[in-house]
Amino acid sequence: MLKCSHCGEWNTTTENQSHCNYCGTEFFTISAAEEQSLARRKTAGDLKIKIQESDSPVVVFFKHTFNFVQMVFLAIVSFIVWFVAAGPG
Ligand SMILES: [Zn+2]
Questions:
Q1: Distance from Cα 22 to the centre of ligand 1, integer Å
Q2: What is the pLDDT of residues 28-38, one digit of tens each?
């Protein structure tokens, strides 16, 4: 079984199959770890506070600050994860 990265359908793959049965997208192998980190990145993006046009300047300022702090925090966390994964042992 192989999940299509484009349409998300599960293909019962046969030997030498290189395209999705459902949408025709060419398969490229994506590891489970990569898929997980992609999903995590998507979730992280959703956590951002959306700034409305009706917000007052003070609210906009705090939302910007929160989003910035969160971004920095995520960057540090992903650096640590990378460092632990890349480091010896
Ligand atoms: Zn597909």
A1: 5
A2: 665 666 777 77
